[in-house]
Amino acid sequence: MSRNRALAAVAAVVVTAGLSQAPAAAAASGDLDPTFSQDGQTTTHLGLDVTAEVVALQGRRILVAGTSETPSGEDGAIVRYHSDGSRDTTFGTKGRVRLDFGRHDAIGDLIVLPSGKLLVAGSSKRRFTVIRLTADGRPDKGFGGGDGVVRTSFGTLFASASQVLRVTRGRFVVAGAAGDRSGARFALARYLPDGRLDRTFSHDGRATTGFGPADSASRVTTLLRWTDSSAVVAVGETGSPSSPKGISVALASYTTRGKPDSFFGGGDGKLVESTTAADYVAGAVMQKNSFILVGGFSDLGATGWDATLLRFNASGHLDGGWGGGDGFVKHDSGASLEYWLGMAADRGGAVMVGQIDGDAAVMRIRQSGALDSSFGVGGYAVTPFPGGDSILQAAAVDSRHRVVGAGTAPATLVADGFAVERLLAH
Q1: Which secondary structure element, helix H or strand E, spans residue 248, and what is its range?
Q2: What percent of the chain has pLDDT over 90?
């Protein structure tokens, strides 16, 4: 007998016996959703080591994509789940798609197109790699060279894509990093709907942006579109722990033609901002009136790590009327270790996902930058997965404002898997 049927039978006995029951406690905002995999969480075994880079919603279904390590190397991996948390076996092979083009393949991002097809961005053979799949997970032969795959080189030792964003007229922009052993720059490429480079963007379809001596670790973590335009702003990090300025938040804005936006930052279309010696970026969301909210975590030295949020206006300056009056806020959960790795927009504010003292965690932020005290405990929901340490690396918010988090947790005694959970939010 299933768990649900057993519970129904017990309830029937209670009613016929004429016994009264105390009403069940109402589910609170930040609680795990019991309609998802019965207890709000599920784990899917994929390989020896797993990283979940993105969670996307395809109607009522949930897609999680990332990278899994196998004995032969690294492969891209996508899993699709029904709304109830069960694996959707109509997708790929038993609900899973593995993308293997060589020894080192990685998925950085995935979006669902209006047609229902999937556009996947990542890297293989040290180049940007873009793959279009049908709605059920098969390579789309109408894209690229007939195999559904497009690769783009930047003339550097390596290029890796972490973001894909659909813009106007079916075109799309892919962003990440490109460089060599001495450093890396922001790298962007814009494509036509069939996968050809759009050569009206920065002459040849590609653009790179450096940030001076801090180029050693520049990378895009989020790509945002300016309202009703093909113009985009890339958000990420620049620098390294060993550089004098450490790791900083970096933004670069591009016109519809792929040129630096002279109205943004210092007139060169870019800016670098620091709150500590190490500011790591989890993501960014575009808010009303083109304010950009950037979230992540910062190294505070002996006192540990805290969540950090910065808000920039449309011209690329910190919003002095937000937060503490200087354009940024920090939140301390009180834990000795906390990391925030994913971010999603939520009702004018945002949610961030990560880890607190070894357990998966979610925090909810109001538009003002304050924690939403009605969510979880003081704005935090800590949700351990069975078996050991767990961490959330990507987030999405569905049409009912439920938070879907994806990351990694132990799937077997020797291997990790995609860890997926859904939390209620009122």
Answers
A1: strand 247-254
A2: 77
